[in-house]
UniProtKB/TrEMBL annotation:
SMART domains: ZnF_UBP. This is BRCA1-associated protein. Residues 173-213 form the RING-type domain. It comes from Linum tenue. Residues 388-415 form a coiled coil. Pfam families: BRAP2 (PF07576), zf-UBP (PF02148). Keywords: Coiled coil, Metal-binding, Zinc, Zinc-finger. GO terms for cellular component: cytoplasm. The keyword Zinc-finger applies.
Amino acid sequence: MFILRVHSVDPHHPLDLEETAFSVVSSTAANHPETIPSRNPKYGERRGVVHLYRSASQSSLPNPSSRSTSLFVVAVPNYLSPDGFVRFCETHIDSVLDLVFIRNDGMEDRYSVLIKLDSQLAADRFYSNFNGKRFSPSEAEVCHILFLLSVDYTDSAEVASTPPAGFAALPTCPICLERLDPDTSGILSTLCDHSFQCSCTSKWTYLSCQVCRYCQQEDEKPTCAVCDTLENLWVCLLCGFVGCGRYKEGHAVRHWKRTEHQYSLDLRTQQIWDYVGDNYVHRLNQSKAYDKSVDVNSNCTYMEGDCGTCECSSDDAGFGGALYSSKVEAIVDEYNRLLATQLETQRQASVSLVSIFVTPMLLTSWYYESLIAEAKGKQEISISGAVEEAVSSTMQELQNKLELCEREKNAVAEVNRGLIKDEDAWRKKAKEIEARQSSSLRSKDEMILDLEEQIRDLTVYLEAQKTLNKMTDPSDIREGTLLPMPLKQSSPAKTKRNAKSNRRRN
């Protein structure tokens, strides 16, 4: 069974369906109008990215326990419009309840269709009539239909791209689905295995699948997306990541562990490897016995016996071809497992032989390596001891110089303090000398003034004596009157000197 998850990219109406009625009448209704009433299905269109998942625990081929009334047409070519698709399946349109056309803006060459039928019998008939049928007789595209267990719509890309528990992701490209074996893809009938530049792959208009572009474009040489190597390249069927194989750098395996995309295509051999099952899962349409294509019939939904509902009893030859193809694939798988076992046994034997012959050489090598390591250790110890000794002597010299500088600094500081003290004493002495000099100058000035007063008094006295001596009659000054004369203001020292002179006169 399959699960479909759609990441809706319509920001305005992510869950709304646009309804349009189609006036079509099936051939059954035209022949028996009284038994089957005419019904128009609901038509809707949704834009989004489709993610397809299959159950990992059982085969994807349809069986009575894995059918439902919901069908999914994987890819419809873009040249077939929605009206054309309705005309393509108009013989069973009366049993259709809903038709939803899902378009992805990144894939302009195709779209998908989700169909809901009114009963399981109608779904089985629809599947048996249209699965494996060409959309147009002149074109290569084939209608591939899958039974769906559930359909989920979400606006989260992370939720849509996360596989449900117990399910594995499948590519939505029809060419890549046809490359897988029927048990993996659920597709029985194909025209070829699409290997090595097949013509039907180029019929798609735009080749929106990156894997198909790698298979078709010979002029471009792909490289590993991580290490740019050109050898042993594998491309992921789900996202188109190109990585180198496990015998190079193993970037393809790391991509599977990181993203859980388990199917990878070998670009050299066009074979598909399943990392989870650890085996090849590519389709084997080529018969080894008769060297011709095995045409597998897909008209019956049952895998065992005659279902009695889809008129498949006359197609036993095609069903036998499918069984033969399955047997060939089982033989190939068994051969791959046997080859892997033999390679592992040979590897272990080689390892034992290598251990027998190489161990003595390894022991000798280890012995000489130990001697070299010991010599290197001794050399390093001697070098480190010499370095430590040189460093210690240099440190001692620096310490002695530092102590000498400290002593010189202390001596200079002491001299500086003594000079500062002497400077203070000399400043005091200079002040005292200046004070004495100023005092002596003042005393000298006073003495000069006193002497000047005395000289003036003496001059007055001498002039008076001369005047008296010149006078002939002394009676002229008798009974005379002495008038006071105004004197200049003098200092206390002058007053004191005047008093002394007056005392001397008296």
